[in-house]
From TrEMBL:
Protein name according to UniProt: 50S ribosomal protein L3
Similarity remark: Belongs to the universal ribosomal protein uL3 family.
GO molecular function: rRNA binding; structural constituent of ribosome
Ranges annotated as biased composition (Basic and acidic residues): 219-230, 246-256
Pfam families for the chain: Ribosomal_L3
Listed PANTHER family: 50S RIBOSOMAL PROTEIN L3, LARGE RIBOSOMAL SUBUNIT PROTEIN UL3C
Gene3D superfamilies per record: Translation factors
Region entry Disordered, spans: 131-157, 212-264
Native species: Candidatus Curtissbacteria bacterium RIFCSPLOWO2_01_FULL_42_50
Length: 264
């Protein structure tokens, strides 16, 4: 089945759980994704529309009537064999032009979100990698945010690859796992995810369902009060006879006994 969908990061907000705790959440706008290409074990999803399409995208325009703004290839479930019967795969069910909506998610799902982090421009080692910098006393000057040594001398006579130095910070691909789906608003096409996700406002995101949150319990449903009170069951014959006998005994006890006068 399809477990991945494309969306746009909108804003951060808050929600409250069953215990009244305040939860930070991210609102993701997930409009219907269109299947624009299908091949063995994979499909290509498209989101949004381009104002001006390239010549290389004419194939999409002829097939769908528009050129999608975002395109990504995702993997789908392969065939499963149960006994002698072969179950149809998603690639057999999903066709080009079909739409994938938020119906694949529900509250309590665990997802991982992939996006591009915020770009912070050129940054030094203290900001980019958390270096401590040089000492502030003992004769040091202008070394407070210096990177320090970057290697040896003649041997090896070069700087090793991957050395942490100053450079461009941010604007890199990042995936955050273990996020929880708090709410699915199908009317507004919005997915409410607990916590923060990478990227700027209106940034492109890939959301993939990975399972269920451990120990998740759905909120209790409010019971509706009955509109009409149930009619009381009629008394049975045995109950009526017993009540009649009790009333007769009380009346006999109230009557004065024979041979006794009411006078003192």
């Amino acid at each position: 089945m399809v477990t991945t969908i494309l969306g746009i990061k909108k804003e951060m907000s808050v929600r409250f759980d069953q215990l009244g705790r305040r939860l930070p959440v991210t609102v993701v706008q997930v409009d219907p994704n269109v299947v624009i290409l299908k091949k063995d074990g994979q499909i290509m999803l498209g989101l949004g529309q381009k104002k001006k399409a390239k010549k290389t995208e004419n194939a999409f325009i002829s097939a769908l009537g528009f050129a999608p703004k975002y395109k990504r290839e995702i993997k789908i479930a392969q065939a499963e064999i149960t006994g002698s019967e072969k179950i149809k795969t998603t690639s057999d069910v999903v066709k080009t032009g079909d739409k994938i909506t938020l119906s694949i998610f529900e509250p309590g799902d665990q997802v991982k979100v992939c996006g591009i982090t915020r770009g912070k421009g050129f940054a030094g080692t203290v900001k980019r990698w958390g270096f401590a910098g040089g000492p502030k006393t003992h004769g040091q000057s202008d070394r407070h945010r210096a990177p320090g040594s970057i290697g040896q001398t003649t041997t090896p006579g070069r700087v090793y690859k991957g050395k942490k130095m100053a450079g461009h910070m941010g604007h890199a691909k990042l995936t955050i796992t273990g996020l929880e789906v708090i709410e699915v608003d199908s009317a507004a096409s919005q997915l409410i995810v607990k916590g923060s996700v990478p990227g700027v406002k209106n940034g492109f995101l890939i959301i993939e369902k990975t399972g269920k949150v451990k120990g998740y319990k759905p909120p209790p449903k409010e019971e509706e009060e009955p509109k009409e009170k149930p009619a009381t069951s009629p008394r049975t014959d045995s109950g009526a006879a017993q009540a009649k006998g009790d009333n007769q005994k009380l009346e006999e006890e109230k009557k004065p006994q024979s041979g006794q006068s009411d006078l003192p």
